[in-house]
Specification:
single chain; alpha+beta; seven-stranded mixed β-sheet; 17 helices; 27 strands; 27% helix; globular
Length: 584
Amino acid sequence: MDRRLFLELCGLTVASGFYSGLAPAARAAGAPRWLGNEIEVDVVIAGGGLGGCAAAMAALRAGAPRVLMTEPTDWIGGQLTQQAVPPDENRYIETHGATRSYRQFREHVRDYYRRYYPLTDAVRDKPNLNPGNGRVSRLCHEPRVALAVLEAMLAPAITAGRLVVLLNTHPIGAEVDGDQVRALRLACPDGSQRIARAPFFIDATEEGDLLPLTGAEFVTGFESRAETGEDHAPDHAQPDNIQSLTWVLAAGYREGEDHTIERPATYDFWRDYVPQLEPKPWPGKLLALHYSRPRTLEPLVLSFIPSVPTRPLPATPTLNLWLYRRIVDGSQHEPGAMPTDATIVNWPQNDYWLGNVYNVSPEERARNLEQSRQLSLSLLYWLQTEAPRPDGGQGWPGLCPRGDLTGTPDGLAKYPYIRESRRMRAEFTILEGHVGRDMRLRLTGAPPDEVTAEPFPDSVGVGLYNIDLHPSTGGDNYIDFAALPFRIPLGALIHRRVENLLAANKNIGSTHLTNGCYRLHPVEWNIGEAAGALAAFCLARGEAPRRVRNDEATLADFQRSLTEQGFELAWRHLPAQPPVLAPA
């Protein structure tokens, strides 16, 4: 569906780069109002990713009268939409390990496909429909569908005049008074600047942008073992050692056609590049059908065979990368309805770790982002022209960029997939010893079948994922080891000094290591939803976030309200482990 038509059907218009409710609802008493270039609301949320959207929904649901959310691109949804990353989720996600609203979002995605897509009757009736049948997730789907669902979930509040969403807008400055943030200065798409004032500010940006802007203390990179006591930490801090980023690409396949792109400017470099990583080397060139197995760092041989809807794929003894993050499976639709399948190219082969985006000049940051784009385009060109085929030939010229799925002219995502943010110096920092299985076994002495993660008493949610770190700018190969089903401590969302700044993304009080299991889609949503709920709770009670955490009775009231809203504060009894979706 055309995006403008969709918004009009929801009672919304797109003007001046932002969504606003139509009259008369937007003029209702208490609705956000612009006075010149300034607006005053109750909560300002910087960043419209999953954490930001969840924070907005929660704040509004819990009674915050007026909320403003900014988004630097023209798509809300973060990882799922403008970064084009299908959801990485815990294996129990259909029944455990997420908030009620996150599971509602997932069902809305399935309902969208059932309502608008020409699925076969058998596929439409599947209770756990997986639109793309990708192996990485039980809900591999198109970025545009996630965008449509999120816009629909926010539409009532926008139309009622309680929520303003500023697109193509990002914070560039802050007004701070001691330990209080008073306002943010926003850069708007028309070149103007606006001021947003509020009692509470939520940093849901992908890179923790509000931390340096407000002067709030933060950390980047790998902390030292002396600071954290973590088994996997280095002897000395490495602030510039950050997980690789990926400029994700969407591709389809049209057999018998030639869609070879123009040879990328840096293709020769990437074609010959051999990663120099430790403690075990990469198994050869980066552009190849192999990589280091994350858990053991031993070579893992792969395959790549694109599919067409009318012909089943041949069985292969290795992981077929085409199927890993496939988001369109034409075989699930009526014959001829989907002439091509589509997949998301987000593999180790297009992870970029040769430069940093933090602690560098704007010029160096721009160069590194452009090199990450060049790497992804070079991988596509290699797949089109040189990748080995089962028949002994080279290249799949029928591979075509699917910019129609990413909203871009070249098939690349609108924004790079950022795995590791700046992280706030929080009231509480989550360490490997709180969630890592082996370190918990050592510290607690519990039997392997009884060991649990730290039972944080200020829990505001749960999650489960390996401590999974992709190769990093410091030359580390994969760091990947087991984490236990964990809780999300409220203290990790509250800055240790700044009183009214909350975290709602990967910028929580975690370490380089624990970021590896707190960075995925359902956990980010839960973090954002908790931050929004906390801001609304504090507004209603006249409380400071720090007191909510540290006063036993107030914390109990807040956690009770979260439970009523559908949060899981502790892991319930887990069912028998379902089959693993993809090899480690």
